[in-house]
Amino acid sequence: MSEQQLFKVTIDNITVEVAPGTTVLEAARMIGGDVTPPAMCFYSKLKGSGGKCRTCLVEVSKGSEKDPRPMPKLMASCRTAVMDGMEVKNITSDRVKDARAGVVEFLLINHPLDCPICDQAGECHLQDLGYEHGKEGTRYEFNRRTFEKHDLGPYIQLHMTRCILCYRCVYVADQLTENRGHGILDRGDHAQIATYIEKALTSDFIGNVIDVCPVGALTDKTFRFKNRVWFTKPVDAHRDCDKCCGEVQLWMRGEEVLRVTARKDQWGEVKESSKGGTGWICNECRFEKKKTADWVVEGPSMVNRHSVISQGHYLGMQQPHETIAKVMGRAPRLLMDIHEVSEVNDPSVDLSAIEGPATGATFKKEKSKS
Amino acid sequence: MQTLTNRSKPVNRKPMTWLEKLYVWNIAKGMAVTFIHIFKRKATISYPEQKRSFSKVFRGLHILNRDEEGRERCTACGLCAVACPAEAITMEAAERQKGEEHLYREEKYAAKYEINMLRCIFCGLCEEACPKDAIYLSQTFAPANYGRAGFIYGKENLLIPNPKEDPEGFNKARGERVMS
């Protein structure tokens, strides 16, 4: 490999040298920043993914050193291998920007506007994509497609209306689990993620479809409606697990572990573990270890400060010294303890202990007790 | 020093004459202003008996809105809480069960919704953030209270009357601010 020469590729006037066989998208990710095309279906850790959503379209203005003709159509950068001397335009090309806005519009044609309900809101790639590359309104005048409710068992919640058919979850089931229980049924407008005859997805590692899903189509049922992601506090934690690397991110509220996910890198993909292996986590770690005692907490996760999740999370925060107790010799008497009055955030209600989403009874029952 | 505006007047430092030293003229001038105001319209009202009408853009106590069918609009999306600069809003979400479709508009709803009126600064950002037209600042203000506990407003204080059962109360509570 060492004698193999590197290919020079220029993306938005920035030149990098990459190994032959690298795709344009991966080369752009090496540069990073705004130059990187967004990707909804491509997932570098899943073999065969990509080429479906068309959000990563780029303009190839010069094919290669030997054949400098530009490519006539916009190319999907996740599936186009680099050539020596290739010149690619992403954000510097108006054609790309226009096409991308069109692709986003197509993706959103059938996507419901239920972000206020959706658990993925705040970490949704389609939300980011629509915000950055989309148009404000929709021109679609017809009803969005609807599906019959399909139950995928106690762990995974499927919202087929939100799906953009990226196939990532299918590849996860193929490549990480011993048998794939779900797939895409039907075709065209009727294509849907389903198990054909309704059954629960229970194979180990199937929980990773939640991390991989770019939208809120597959979400964690044990976290369903418990809190918004930006009110939870992400911390890195690990435990000894014989099935997976055991390195996870806990999404906590106070001392409660509301959700467990794999750690993500800057592209929203599951990070490699610090021991060198893959970062996928098993179902046991994800769904059953919902106590702080199960985990060794390493510290708060780094969150991109442009993300809504970073709101209210401060690193290196110093609490001011309370001087009243020192001067008076006793703690100051509080005029009101908020927990005596407030019914929200009741210490006696442990949301992490309930299996599914909370219902009206969860809060009513506790109220009559107190 | 040269002035910037050329409008400054030099101070008159002449000693006062005998007539001026009596101050009668100036006192009469001052009293005239006072007496004129006796015949002018009063600027104040006797408050609890009389009340002033609110401006259309007045931002007072919050209301939680319902739709035409009387279902709660709030879905506990948390955008008001994240927009709130005073961190006054908290909520607890729950899933709508079968048979509750007439109560809540969407799959998810706010089982508990609380606004701490002690913290609230009535900026109206919650209203602006709300994607569901669920929260509005009405044309009333929080009544005075001796205790702090009375200022924690729960859903029972905030929700407006059901338009099907009490259309009059519904319209009154919505006031003129609600646009939809």
User: How many strands of chain A?
Assistant: 13
> Pairing-aware structural class of the strands and helices of chain A?
alpha+beta
Q: Report the C-alpha radius of gyration of chain A, rounded.
A: 24 Å
Supply the CATH class of the largest domain in chain A. Answer: Alpha Beta
- The CATH architecture of the domain at 62-174 in chain B would be 2-Layer Sandwich
Portion in strands of chain B: 5-15%
Number of domains of chain A: 3
The percent range for helix content of chain B is 10-25%
Report the end-to-end length of chain A measured between terminal Cα atoms.
69 Å
Q: Which strand order do you get reading across the main beta sheet of chain B?
A: 2-3-5
Q: Helix tally of chain A?
A: 9
Task: Give the biggest sheet of chain B.
Answer: 3 strands, antiparallel
Physical arrangement of strands within the biggest beta sheet of chain A: 2-1-5-3-4
What is the residue-mean pLDDT of chain A, rounded to a whole number? 90
Mean pLDDT of chain B: 89
Q: Please provide the ordered H/E string of secondary-structure elements of chain B.
A: HHEHEEHEEHH
Q: Estimate the global geometry of chain A from the Cα principal axes.
A: globular
Radius of gyration of chain B: 28 Å
Strand content of chain A: 15-25%
Unreliable stretches of chain B, pLDDT < 50, 5 or more residues?
none
Question: What layout of secondary structure does this protein have?
Answer:
The complex is a heterodimer of chains A (370) and B (180).
Chain A: E1 7-11, E2 14-18, H1 24-31, E3 57-62, E4 75-76, E5 86-89, H2 94-109, H3 125-133, E6 156-158, H4 168-176, E7 183-185, E8 192-194, H5 208-212, E9 218-220, E10 233-238, E11 247-253, E12 256-262, H6 283-288, E13 296-300, H7 324-328, H8 338-341, H9 360-369
Parallel strand pairs in A: 1-5
Antiparallel strand pairs in A: 1-2, 3-4, 3-5, 6-9, 7-8, 10-11, 10-13, 11-12
Chain B: H1 18-22, H2 24-38, E1 62-64, H3 79-83, E2 89-95, E3 108-116, H4 125-129, E4 135-137, E5 152-153, H5 155-158, H6 167-174
Antiparallel strand pairs in B: 1-4, 2-3, 3-5
